[in-house]
Design goal:
Structural class: mainly alpha
Helix content: over 70%
Keywords: Membrane, Transmembrane, Transmembrane helix
Protein name: ABC transporter permease
Number of helices: 13
Strand content: under 5%
Organism: Actinoplanes ianthinogenes
Shape: globular
Radius of gyration: 20 Å
Low-confidence stretches: 1-14
Order of helices and strands: HHHHHHHHHHHHH
Pfam family, one: ABC2_membrane_6
Distance between the termini: 27 Å
């Protein structure tokens, strides 16, 4: 391609790995820059998260006050406050809902252009989502946590391993969430309208992901089943339990390991579904 100012984002044939890393990094950066333009939406969303943080925190603290020993499901009041405020901050980082970009492009047929690009759609969307999560971590996450620290007695980590484990858990939660959202969006290849599956995902992710209440409050057999058989607790429950130091170090590391397994498995499944869909793609609308 030639011409003034013309450029094409490609993977280098001289150094494939280095070129892939550079391309992936550029896509992450573009995803980050995209969300820096939505300043008013960021402020409004952060304010909403803070308001609901107060409501959720007082509800769970009331539950703790009425529970025997003041520790419902093994959480003390500080751990519950930490769970709520970090959860409000992570809500926009992990992103449980509000993403239907791929499904819309499939419905309109624009996905055909994505398939002609040198970067696979799964890679491109993953990189952009990591850039979005990075922006949310610096904006939507910080403010609710600061408000929580100033207004409620949050738990300060007592183990140095908690911080790196929490950061790793958040990264894995973003990847797990992306894998789930990508798979839900790809149903549009067969259904041509993914609004139904997306709505089911929205309803299930909040309840089974640990947003509204800690899943440890459920019967033990049900909580364990959700953790092992579904990726839902890996969305919010695991990183929040790690931050609140709900469990010992060994169990925390094990839960993060479960997250890693779900992240890898969902990305592999998304790749398989994408390849199968490309072989039988019917472009809608022309």
């Amino acid at each position: 391609m030639s011409g003034k100012g013309a450029s094409v984002l490609t993977i280098s044939t001289v150094g494939p790995l280095r070129g892939w890393v550079a391309t992936f990094g550029a896509l992450v950066g573009s995803g980050f820059r995209r969300y820096t333009t939505y300043r008013q939406a960021t402020i409004a969303g952060t304010f909403t998260n803070v308001v609901f943080g107060y409501l959720r925190c007082y509800v769970l603290l009331a539950v703790a006050a009425s529970a025997p020993g003041g520790r419902p499901a093994g959480y003390d009041p500080q751990q519950l406050a930490t769970y709520v405020w970090l959860g409000q901050g992570l809500l926009s980082v992990v992103l449980l809902w509000g993403w239907a970009d791929l499904a819309e492009r499939i419905r309109t047929g624009d996905v055909a252009a994505d398939l002609l690009r040198p970067v696979a759609p799964l890679t491109a969307y993953l990189a952009a989502d990591l850039g979005r999560a990075g922006h949310a971590m610096l904006t939507r996450f910080v403010v609710p946590v600061v408000v929580g620290v100033l207004c409620f007695p949050l738990r300060i980590p007592t183990r140095w391993q908690t911080v790196p484990l929490f950061l790793a858990s958040v990264l894995l939660a973003v990847i797990v969430s992306f894998g789930c959202r990508y798979l839900v969006n790809t149903t549009a290849y067969w259904l041509h309208d993914a609004r139904g599956p997306i709505m089911l995902w929205v309803l299930g992710a909040g309840v089974l992901g640990g947003l509204y209440f800690p899943l440890r409050m459920l019967p033990e057999w049900l909580a364990v089943t959700l953790w092992v058989a579904t990726p839902m607790p890996s969305l919010l429950q695991t990183p929040l339990d790690v931050a609140a130091e709900r469990d010992g170090l060994a169990l925390q590391a094990g839960l993060v390991g479960v997250q890693a397994c779900w992240a890898v498995g969902l990305l592999l499944l998304a790749r398989l579904v994408q390849r199968r869909a490309e072989r039988r793609l019917v472009v809608q609308g022309g």
